[in-house]
Amino acid sequence: MAHTTNHPVQQESMSGKKAAIFLVIFLIIAAAGLSYVKWWPYYQKTILAATTHSIGPSILGEHASSTPSWHAAWSYAIAYFNSVWKAAVLGILLGSLIQVLLPAHWLLKVLGKTSFGSTAIAGLAAVPGMMCTCCAAPMAVGLRKKNVSVGASLAFWLGNPTINPATLIFMTFVLSWKFTLIRLFFGLILTFGVSYLANRFAKDTKPLDMEQVISHSEENQPTGSFLTRWAKALGMMLLYIVPAYILSVLLLGFVSVWLFPNLSGAAAVGILAVIGFAITGMLFVIPTAAEIPIIQTLMSFGLGGGPAAALLVTLPAISLPSLLIVGRSFPKKVLLFVASSVVVLGILSGLAGMLIL
Q: Which residue from 112, 145, 173, 309 could staple onto 49, CB 3.0 to 4.6 Å apart?
């Protein structure tokens, strides 16, 4: 009898050890990948920003032509993917590994609630990631596959680009501390406030029985060997992410001359420019920290502080490609709320910029 009673306990202990091992493996892979793709390169870029007050030319170039062309689209896509491909590969890799390595019961206990606590933990977990919105999107997809709450998944996705500490440091050296404060203030609102409120737009906002949710989630986990489950998760991500990603980047490169017109005089400093660039920034796609040289270049051509501040918040936050990547993972009402919130916060940021920049 004693042996029969202890058997489930032994099984639970073995399961707990296995989950801990998988968690450690995931953290090692994530840390190694981020060290190679983000942390070490950003350390070098910090030195560059501090000594030269620049982190390189604008990815948009000089926009000599005012007519869209597929040559411009291709050129932008090449420049963009040359900049992000390593981070994009890492994002897809980690997004697939989240689904097969991270224990569902642990994730749901920490990030499965619609409370502000789950949102806050996910937002803080995003800080060391420092991914751009498109590279963080596959990880948000992976979290949603594990039934992590809408608010927590969004906070992780939005927090990666908007409260990126490296970008804030670059910004201080290249632009000014005023830009940094504006970005941090509105980035925190977006990461923690908008993400938390987005829970209300999900289908079920009532308190859940977490034990029941965890049990249901574990019962519905994919079966088979680790390699089989990982190959399936990775294959699904590649199938749904890569084609839409490439095509939308090409499309935005094609229309970029319309999205970033050469403004001068009153048109470059007014409220209409703030609104226009808030919408543009929400749609357009850039690599991590590319908003800094874009703003630096546009301001050298006469763009005012208000429109520049609008781009400061909206350019990195989300984009059309990243919205397409996460489109199957979040309710449409949630994504509409997030996109609208980014534009509104961009306009408010622009108004703040008109006053203090």
A: 173
